[in-house]
């Protein structure tokens, strides 16, 4: 069987996207993008019917290799696979390789997104198209509030920032980049993920959807501060 890595990589080391061969990279990207779009584990037949032009058996073999590398994991409720924490981190790192926007690109984005007389849907579509053009790939733009309940929360460390991934019960997924306080460890992020998931699961984030008293909100913010995810100045005395 042909190795899916271009060069030998220790089992304990997470490969970079550039170390995966074209087939593994294509399957991995398609699987993660499908997972982020649906919030559900992804099977080989789904990928075969989508953008991966290989047989389900060939896709399954590569998915198994990616699972052994720690990039994918089996779901407890289906035969599909979903990205692990390390897999999400690898995917995001690969996306961030496009670099910073130039000043000209920033001005072009501002000019098109802040044009008068455009409705919200048109602005979101334009933003997604702009991101796709600048990144040379798929552009993902998220809306501020959802009516569906929260299904899963996870944080992925990205240097001095974290990617917050929130999966909703209607299958939609939202992603946010947030600053991290210095010294935050992956275990603290995992603890924060579990902490928020336990309190938000099944609740909506729309106005009035999360029914917590001011005292409960204050206690939650204090807990997040102890974890290092918030600064003390963010908590009011009121």
Topology:
Blueprint lengths: L21 H17 L5 H6 L6 H13 L3 E3 L6 E3 L1 H12 L6 H11 L6 H16 L14 E9 L2 E8 L4 E7 L6 H15 L13 H13 L12
Antiparallel strand pairs: 1-2, 3-4, 4-5
Helix pairs in contact: 1-3, 5-6
Please describe what this structure looks like.
It is a single chain. The protein is built from 8 helices and 5 strands; from the N terminus they run αααββαααβββαα. The longest helix is centred in the first third of the chain and has 17 residues, at 22-38. The protein is globular and about 50 Å long. The chain has helices at 22-38, 44-49, 56-68, 85-96, 103-113, 120-135, 186-200, 214-226; strands at 72-74, 81-83, 150-158, 161-168, 173-179. Mean pLDDT is 68; it is low at 1-12, 116-121, 134-144, 207-214 and 232-238. It has 3 domains: 17-96, Arc Repressor Mutant, subunit A (Orthogonal Bundle), CATH 1.10.10.10; 103-135; 150-234, no CATH class. A 3-stranded antiparallel β-sheet has the order 3-4-5. Strands 1-2 form a two-stranded antiparallel ribbon. It is of the alpha+beta class.
